[in-house]
Amino acid sequence: MLSDVMSTEIFDQKKFQPLAIIIPIMMVLSVNRLVGQDQPQLELVFETLNRPVGIAIQPETGHIFVSESGKNRVIRIAGREFANVITEFESVEAGIEFPFRVNPLSLAFLNRNRLAISFGSGTEGKIKLGIYDIPDVGEPAILASDGKFDNLDLESENPHELGCFGIVTTRSGIYTSCAGDESKGWIARLAVQNGEPKFEEFQRFISTVEAAQTLLPYALAVSPDGFIVVGQAGTLSGQRDSLLTFYDEGSGELKARFDTGLHDICALAYGPAAKRLFALDHSHNQPGEAGLFKLVGRENNTKCVSERIANVERPTAMAFDGSGNLFITGLGPQKDPAGGKLFVVRKLDVVKGSDRN
Fold first, then answer.
1. Is 26-355 CATH 2.120.10.30?
2. Side-chain-side CA neighbours of residue 155 (13 Å)
3. Residues 170-194: pLDDT tens digits?
4. N or C end of the chain: smaller count of CB under 10 Å?
5. 0.70 exceeded by the pTM?
6. Where are the domains of the chain?
7. What is the largest distance, in Å, between two alpha-carbon atoms of the chain?
8. What's the whole-number average pLDDT of the chain?
């Protein structure tokens, strides 16, 4: 269902195929003011991370989980302290565009105690999802082999380049973006029923290349109205060709398609309060133009404008906590594999009482 606070308009069918509904870029397209954030500040939380490529905030605790891919582990960060949570992931080549080894990749919580993790494919040409029951604070770390897994063969012409750099969860599914498959650009779906993943139902769901006619589905989010939101990075050629696309979770139908003016979208996140949408641009070929952006609707929500909030060196992932603080991982200097950092922009998504939805 579309939100009662948004009017429904129809795009020109000649411009968007299939017929597209203007849906939330949702409250992102609202005009609520940021509270005390005329100039949001990017604060360093943690450094010397080795290729951090995924992040998730644990429900209830607010602890930060990071996939430190260069050390093949998932860590928990609480304050200024960190501890291993899952270790000894198998490393694989990330692909031609990212000449280093990776795993694990993206993280998303199903609930307080269960964590979904996506993987790079290596030479097998199969994408992989793992579900882990994570240990509590103070308990020993578990091994990567301790999870429950499902694999999906995408029959890609470039199997070593496959990687699931985006992952989101809903009540009915776990979705992961399959970058590197230039012919289809799949979003894959693992069904969830009554809170339990149905491992026999991991399948191809949306061919974003066919639907949106562009490459590299990297970033994923779920809109406040339940649409699957995809950031398509495009060609990684230096062009500003990243798209923002919205898909129906039930049918997989493309509902809206927006140019963003960004180079290479690598992460998307909705704020918990004002429901604005934010994007990270990795800007692969122009790293000086990388950063954090707010996506804003213009001209009756028919266009998307990207407003720069902060510069971030080689950003990879981001996640909000329940207080509207946005945590961001970045790879840091290209020649320093252990130069990765964790940043925070505090109170980025809050609204005044009179503006609250």
1. yes
2. 4
3. 999 999 998 767 778 889 999 999 9
4. N
5. yes
6. 26-355
7. 58
8. 83
